[in-house]
């Protein structure tokens, strides 16, 4: 099945975006001829190649035939060609840039000789460059843009070219480049995007679709740095941080895979989402949110649909990326709110509906200080050794609520990497962890009633809870304070356990 080749779409989008925003590469002149000269110079300084097969003058318009931009990457190159490009100087000092109806994009992998081709069409495309040499603005709008797979020359390619397309409707973008500050800022919106992947491979047929609406994006970063994406050090060592955020107002997706005798079908939707990335001297920040997630799957050997939902899913990561004697901030946060599964799943192990089936919630929020011995983006410098060490670790929040029980907790520890504590071969932790558990006894009884636990299992669990916890303020609740001492000891609620 040629699904992996769909991963080439982001590379194609990169080439297309570079071609459509050629004037954004460097401060724009006020005449088409000066603009063209700056395009070529900028492309050359960034390791790219800009060529054209011919040029002519149509009144005040400079017409370029087969304008081509080539971008090299470690495994090959991307080439985007506009059959006709018209540059027109306007009376207000701005320049109108008009591309031909179709743009041809080709990705070549020089290592294995494979290639993929796309044809890009557009409707209502307008690109206007304005501002001043010190602060250039670019307004880019289009009613519709569509990218379609046009050629596929790869090993084990299917006999029939699969249908692969990406369509964006209602595009509006503004780019501002500050020459003095060396920064580039963009603000964009897209009414809707639809992606399709459909075809056959031997005896397998596949049909995938994804739609997303109400996209809004904003980015800020050093101008020109993305031409050196093959060198991550440029991003992490730049004096200007790169920040990008994308939100959307809802999405829907569907996948059907059919093989002889069986079919897998998955459908889902969300009510919104967010993706945020920051890269710079302070390290890496990454945030993801999915709102209103619904998923339904029909799979062989299951007589009922598998359905799940969640009010919110989230993931946050912050960490340093460059070596330093000074520890940097680190954070990991994982969240799933109001997570549910269908009754068909419950009934597989609890047909009598003994276990409470209310939505589950998970929250793990960790932070700390991390010292790196090597740059995490430099594989050669990292080698096979541990690349760093934590000096502080905190459990800022811990919540697990499911099956009628709830566990919460928080704690803070310092880390002595030169000694070991009660955990063998691990650095010594010194600090306090506070925990609270409710509904545990009822859960143990319910798990025994449905046969998951034996009475002996329950007895052992209650003995362990008796050692580590004490009764809480309400019935069927426990609280515990776990202390890890500087001497390597373990104390639970004042009782020395080690």
What does this entry look like structurally?
By secondary structure, the protein is mainly beta. The chain has a domain at 1-181. Helices cover 13% and strands 57% of the residues. It contains 7 helices and 27 strands. The protein has a 27-stranded antiparallel sheet that branches. Strand 6 and strand 7 (115-123) form a beta hairpin. It is globular and about 90 Å long. It starts with 8 loop residues before the first helix and ends with a strand. The relative contact order is 0.06.
What's the gist of this structure?
The chain is mainly β. The chain has a domain at 1-181. 13% of the residues lie in helices and 57% in strands.
Task: Give me some keywords for this one.
mainly beta; 498 residues; 7 helices; disordered N terminus
How far apart are the first and last residues' alpha carbons, in Å? 56 Å
Total count of helical runs of at least 4 residues: 7
Largest sheet: 27 strands, antiparallel
Q: Categorize the overall geometry.
A: globular
Calculate the mean pLDDT score and round it: 88
Structural class estimated from helices and strands: mainly beta
Helicity range: 10-25%
Total number of strands: 27
**Portion in strands:** over 45%
Radius of gyration: 29 Å
Which blocks of ≥5 consecutive residues have pLDDT under 50? 1-11, 23-29
Helices, strands, pairings?
Blueprint: H1 9-20, H2 32-45, E1 49-51, E2 54-58, E3 61-73, E4 76-89, E5 95-99, E6 102-109, E7 115-123, E8 126-131, E9 135-153, E10 163-178, E11 183-201, E12 204-222, H3 232-236, E13 242-248, E14 250-259, E15 262-270, E16 272-280, E17 283-298, E18 306-319, E19 328-341, H4 343-349, E20 360-372, H5 379-382, E21 388-402, E22 405-420, E23 427-438, H6 440-449, H7 455-468, E24 470-471, E25 477-484, E26 490-492, E27 495-496
Antiparallel strand pairs: 1-3, 2-3, 3-4, 4-5, 4-6, 5-8, 6-7, 7-9, 8-9, 9-10, 10-11, 11-12, 12-13, 12-14, 13-16, 14-15, 15-17, 16-17, 17-18, 18-19, 19-20, 20-21, 21-22, 22-23, 23-25, 24-25, 25-26, 26-27
């Amino acid at each position: 099945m040629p699904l992996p080749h769909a991963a080439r779409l982001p590379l194609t989008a990169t080439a297309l975006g570079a071609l459509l925003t050629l004037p954004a590469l460097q401060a724009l002149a006020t005449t088409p001829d000066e603009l063209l000269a700056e395009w070529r110079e900028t492309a050359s300084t960034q390791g790219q190649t800009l060529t054209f097969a011919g040029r002519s003058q149509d009144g005040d318009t400079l017409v370029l035939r087969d304008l081509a931009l080539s971008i090299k990457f470690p495994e090959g190159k991307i080439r985007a060609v506009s059959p006709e490009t018209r540059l027109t100087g306007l009376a207000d000092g701005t320049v109108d840039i008009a591309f031909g109806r179709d743009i041809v994009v080709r990705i070549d992998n020089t290592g294995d000789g494979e290639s993929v081709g796309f044809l890009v069409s557009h409707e209502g495309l307008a690109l206007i460059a304005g501002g001043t040499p010190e602060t250039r603005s670019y307004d880019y709008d289009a009613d519709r843009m569509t990218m379609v797979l046009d050629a596929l020359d790869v090993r084990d390619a299917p006999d029939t070219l699969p249908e692969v397309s990406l369509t964006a409707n209602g595009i509006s973008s503004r780019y501002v480049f500050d020459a003095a500050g060396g920064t580039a800022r963009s603000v964009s919106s897209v009414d809707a995007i639809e992606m399709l992947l459909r075809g056959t491979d031997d005896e397998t047929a596949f049909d995938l679709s994804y739609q997303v609406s109400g996209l809004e994006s904003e980015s800020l970063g050093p101008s020109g740095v993305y031409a050196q994406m093959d060198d991550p050090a440029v991003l992490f060592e730049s004096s200007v941080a790169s920040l990008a955020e994308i939100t959307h107002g809802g999405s829907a997706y569907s996948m059907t895979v059919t093989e002889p005798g069986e079919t897998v079908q998955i459908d889902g939707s969300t009510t919104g989402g967010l993706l945020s990335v920051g890269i710079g001297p302070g390290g890496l920040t990454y945030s993801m949110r999915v709102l209103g997630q619904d998923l339904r799957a029909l799979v062989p050997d299951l007589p009922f649909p598998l359905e799940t939902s969640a009010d919110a899913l989230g993931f946050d990561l912050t960490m340093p990326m460059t070596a330093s004697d000074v520890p940097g901030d680190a954070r990991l946060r994982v969240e799933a709110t109001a997570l549910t599964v269908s009754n068909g799943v419950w009934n597989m192990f609890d047909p009598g509906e003994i276990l409470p089936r209310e939505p589950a919630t998970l929250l793990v929020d960790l932070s700390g200080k991390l010292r790196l011995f090597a740059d995490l983006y430099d594989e050669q410098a990292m080698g096979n050794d541990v690349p760093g060490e934590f000096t502080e670790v905190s459990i800022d929040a811990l919540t697990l609520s499911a099956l009628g029980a709830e566990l919460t907790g928080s704690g803070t520890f310092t880390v002595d990497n030169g000694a070991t504590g009660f955990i063998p071969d691990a650095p010594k932790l010194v600090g306090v962890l506070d925990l609270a558990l409710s509904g545990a006894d009822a859960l143990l009884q319910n798990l025994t009633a449905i046969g998951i636990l034996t009475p002996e299992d329950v007895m052992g669990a209650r003995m362990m809870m008796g050692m580590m916890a004490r009764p809480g303020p309400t019935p069927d609740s426990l609280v515990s304070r776990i202390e890890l001492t500087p001497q390597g000891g373990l104390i639970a609620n004042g009782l020395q356990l080690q």
